[in-house]
Write a structure and sequence with these properties.
mainly alpha; two-stranded antiparallel sheet
Length: about 170
């Protein structure tokens, strides 16, 4: 924290010096926490849905473990690449500054709009549907109920939007 002086109008008269503390965020994200955030973002909730499909397609437990290990190594390489990009390009804005540095303003702008309109909403829908699929297993239904799953996913999505309205800039 830094201590700055500012001139202000107060009861003692105009232009009295007042000590004001400037609060700044501390840049402290270590290797473990940074890698964990990036790996968690890259893997997402797909790891909870795909094990059954991987096991069915490979046909054996050993081969499915090899596929999962290869996927984990690929995810690790992606997270380390993002970590290195974050240390080289220290601007805020997620992938936008990286795209701007590598491919120019037009591609970065198109990527940003694609992410806002397509990628982020579809990612949120997949996360909410995954939550709903696991949530409805707590109740005893006959068969595979689609309507309760969609209702739970819609409620989860509305809860995410309400709790993150500052992030999504939703006017209330």
């Amino acid at each position: 924290m830094e201590l700055k002086q500012r001139h202000t109008n107060s009861e003692e008269g105009p232009n009295v010096k007042v000590d004001v503390q400037a609060i700044k965020l501390k840049r402290s994200l270590g290797l473990i926490s940074g890698t964990s955030i990036i790996v968690g973002t890259i893997i997402g909730s797909g790891i909870f849905i795909s094990p059954k499909g991987v096991l069915q397609e490979t046909g054996s437990v050993g081969l499915s473990l090899i596929v999962w290990t290869a996927g984990g190594l690929l995810s690790l390489m992606g997270s380390l690449s993002y970590a290195e990009l974050g240390t080289l390009i220290t601007k805020s804005g997620g992938e936008y500054p990286y795209m701007m540095e590598a491919m120019g303003r037009v591609v970065a702008y198109l990527f940003a709009w694609t992410k806002i309109i397509v990628l982020t909403p579809s990612s949120m829908a997949i996360i909410c549907l995954t939550f709903a699929e696991y949530f409805i297993t707590l109740f005893d239904f006959c068969g595979e109920p689609q309507i309760p799953k969609k209702i739970v996913a819609a409620l989860a999505m509305s809860k995410m939007l309400v709790s993150n309205k500052e992030t999504f800039h939703i006017a209330t």
